[in-house]
Specification:
The protein is mainly α. It has 17 helices and 2 strands. Strand 1 and strand 2 form a beta hairpin. The relative contact order is 0.14.
């Protein structure tokens, strides 16, 4: 069975203060999302809304709204850009589930299990198309550049992950490069587009991008730990999915490097050769515990979270800045 890794005091910290501060803007974003998933092709809204309405935190669009407000933007462009960010994220999830052959997403059957791989890929493409339409409508070349560049980097990250799949020789630096592209780039872009709209100084735009990038890395590292040390009901997926899919994540990298020859052979058999048995997950968690791989991965997450928090030091004290700082703590301390 999976071990439960302690992440901090229950109930604290919380994302609620940030959610409250952008609630009015987020209601408008939700209206745009609902309108833009409409199509005469019935299957498109069915597949899209299955995932969009499945209870995700919508953290990335919330960050787009929050960083726009933090930097003094007072227009409407951030609404469509936040919706575009959510569509980009949803598209990557639809595509990821096909690539990973995942059965669950956010506690529900993945779209591919209900409508098939083809529909999941094509609806993901539809959402990307809608995202780019909204970027163009906002009329900011800088915002378009940020988000379109992010789309290319995310795709590169997906391919990098395929190249690293089942490769136990993957180094920590190589793995961080994968998640920097695959996961953190969209966080970074989401946090950068608002300041770009408000035409803030480059130093402030860079600080917002740094905040998002490091928060995204921390977020993914916590996800890596939760796959071996969380609770399935809260995660919305099965414990050990990464292990069964042969994914090389940081806990595996650390346990492999620190293990003896026999332990490394276990990882090669289970992940590279795909010969894992039902009992092997428990053994894998045991090796991670022995070599402090889960604890140290969480430590890395705290490190990147601290860098994200420091990036906000450039901005004066405000309720929004306080809420963003608490959101960093929430992302690192979460249990699902």
């Amino acid at each position: 069975m999976a071990v439960i890794v302690p992440f901090g005091s229950p109930g604290k910290p919380s994302i609620d203060p940030l959610v409250d501060l952008v609630a009015a803007d987020m209601e408008r974003v939700n209206g745009v999302i609902l309108a833009r998933t409409g199509s005469e092709v019935t299957m498109i809204p069915e597949v899209a809304n299955h995932l969009i309405n499945s209870g995700g935190k919508r953290l990335r669009p919330i960050l787009t709204l929050a960083l726009a407000r933090l930097t003094g933007y007072d227009g409407d462009g951030h609404i469509k850009l936040a919706a575009a960010v959510e569509f980009m994220h949803t598209a990557t999830l639809l595509h990821d589930d096909v690539v990973d052959e995942s059965e669950l997403r956010r506690g529900r059957l993945a779209a591919r299990m209900l409508w098939g791989n083809e529909a999941s890929v094509l609806v993901g493409d539809f959402l990307l198309g809608q995202a780019f339409k909204m970027m163009v409508e906002v009329g900011s070349l800088k915002a378009l550049d940020i988000l379109s560049s992010a789309a290319a980097v995310i795709a590169e990250g997906e391919v990098m992950q395929l190249a690293a799949a089942k490769n136990t020789a993957t180094t920590e630096d190589e793995y961080i490069a994968v998640i920097r592209a695959k996961t953190a780039e969209l966080f970074a872009a989401a946090c950068e587009v608002g300041p770009a709209l408000s035409a803030r100084q480059k130093a402030e735009q860079a600080a917002c991008r740094s905040f998002g990038m490091n928060l995204g890395i921390a977020f993914q590292l916590v996800d890596d730990v939760l796959d071996y040390g969380g609770a399935a009901a809260k995660l919305g997926k099965n414990i050990g999915d990464d292990f069964r899919e042969g994914k090389i994540t940081l806990p595996v990298v650390l346990a492999f490097r620190r293990g003896n020859d026999g332990e490394r052979e276990f990882w090669r058999r289970a992940l590279e050769r795909g010969e894992a048995t039902a009992a092997d997950l428990e053994h894998a968690i045991g090796l991670m515990t022995k070599h402090r791989a889960l604890e140290d991965t969480l430590g890395r997450a705290h490190h990147y979270g601290a860098i994200a928090g420091d990036a906000l030091a450039l901005f004066p004290a405000s309720p929004m800045k306080t809420a963003l700082t608490e959101t960093v703590d929430f992302c690192v301390a979460r249990t699902h």
